[in-house]
Amino acid sequence: MNHFPTLRPDNAGRRAFLRRGAALSLAAGATPWALSLAAMGEAAAATATDYKALVCVFLYGGNDQSNTLVPYDSASYRAYQSLRSNIALDRNALTGTVLNPATPLADGRQYALAPGLAPLLPLFDGGKLSVVLNVGTLVRPTTKAQYAAGSVQLPPKLFSHNDQQSFWQASSPEGATSGWGGRMGDLYASGNGNATFTCVSVAGNAVFMSGRSAVQYQVTPSGSVPVAGIKSPLFGSAACSQALQALMTQPRTHLFESEYTRVTGRSIAANDQLTAALSGVNVSTPFPAGNSLGDQLKMVARMIAARGATGAKRQVFFVSLGGFDTHDGLATAHPVLMASVGSALAAFYQSTVELGVADQVTTFTGSDFGRTLVSNTDGSDHGWGNMQFVLGGGVLGKSFVGSAPVPASNGPDDVGQGRLLPSLAVEQYAATLAGWFGVSATDQAGVLPNLGNFSARNLGFMAPA
């Protein structure tokens, strides 16, 4: 029995075919990585004359917020230490990274950065870094009483890595086919010189970067991924490579074959264009050695430097770092992760200064969820609310955004087992970034399907678009 839809050789059928093909990852599953591209221009609805980029730094595993942004005032630190005595950072080690926001927090609350994040302190003090407090996945505003009574819709499968990663990136559980980064890309793809370079991942496949028509273009920290056998001589023969390219790109009459050929041709052309563009740029800012996140961000910096050659006006980038599922060994592993994040983010910001685009590039962090306030024997478990950093010249920095959660087991912000109930939604966080990027209020509703459930849609940490 044929389970495939009838394919019609018209534009509507062609678009439907591409959407289904992207959802099923047909090209990605059967061909080299470089062939996993998509037709991007058809749904684009916005134009831009300037350049802006959003860079998502995703910390896979669920970053421990309490040992990233550490309560520092005497009362809060005592509560923090009592909740996690076996993994708490020493207060004396925090004196050099205390944050002094332009507007102090209520009740004398203070925070300090983890020592490994010290490279970010000058950026906070210089007004280029903002900290968003207690943000997480929500479907609608939720109180502790509503959570306890089960009277409000919640994100599906809370505390599950895969589902919360997906809900954070896509507003849907695992199995989602588009994310809010890709849906922003949908709007701007046709305004870029080459739509292929609108949504770029340096960290492999991520639903965040897939749109309804836009599919991420994947690169490595070393550059684009060529089609094997074409970029270099096949079996040592240039003639063989030319024959292979002709075979892979020659016109076909069958719709499936025709689309496959078109995507292959686009992949080859994109690789050639990007390779040439990157060869003409230089980023002299030193990035930390042996730092995978730094390597990814350096490639982002190089692609931004090449924006003139690629014709990009709006770009969304995705990079990531794993290892944050610290159920055990947190006291040893987490400081190393913080040092990687701190040095990589600071270097990347300096590269945007070097390139003259610091005001046009905004970097922001995300993670599956936060972790429990209370420690287990050697770490912390899956939580909910978390804190995030937003960095860039367009950030209204030296500030905390949102309300500081109470560090207390079974306190007003704890829904059980030390899990913080988010007071801000990822949708609100994303909408604030989208507004700076130039996405209209009307289009934000399409990019973020749950945004209409929240009255506050601009958290105020970005300068006006």
Task: Explain the overall architecture.
The structure is a single chain. The chain has 14 helices and 14 strands. The protein has one domain. With 465 residues, it is α/β, with parallel strands linked by helices. The N and C termini lie far apart (53 Å). Strands 1, 4, 5, 6, 7, 8, 9, 12, 13 and 14 form a ten-stranded mixed sheet that branches. The protein has a two-stranded antiparallel sheet with strand order 2-3. Strands 10-11 form a two-stranded antiparallel sheet. The protein is globular, with a radius of gyration of 23 Å. Residues 1-44 have low confidence and may be disordered.
Topology overview:
Elements: H1 11-24, H2 26-30, E1 52-59, E2 69-71, H3 74-83, E3 111-113, H4 121-125, E4 129-136, H5 144-149, H6 161-170, H7 180-188, E5 199-201, E6 217-220, E7 223-224, H8 238-249, H9 255-279, H10 292-305, H11 307-310, E8 314-321, H12 330-354, E9 361-367, E10 371-375, E11 380-382, E12 386-391, E13 399-401, E14 424-425, H13 426-437, H14 441-447
Parallel strand pairs: 1-8, 1-9, 4-13, 4-14, 5-6, 5-8
Antiparallel strand pairs: 2-3, 4-12, 6-7, 9-12, 10-11
Helix pairs in contact: 7-14, 10-12
Organism: Caenimonas terrae
Protein name: DUF1501 domain-containing protein
Pfam families: DUF1501
Compute the separation of the termini in Å. 53 Å
Taking all Cα atoms into account, the compactness measure Rg is 23 Å
How many structural domains?
A: 1
Shape call: globular
Content-based structural category? alpha/beta
Helix coverage percent of residues?
25-40%
> How much is the average pLDDT?
88
Order of helices and strands: HHEEHEHEHHHEEEHHHHEHEEEEEEHH
Number of strands: 14
- Put simply, the count of helices is 14
Low-confidence stretches: 1-44
Q: Let me know the largest β-sheet.
A: 10 strands, mixed
* Amount of beta strand: 5-15%
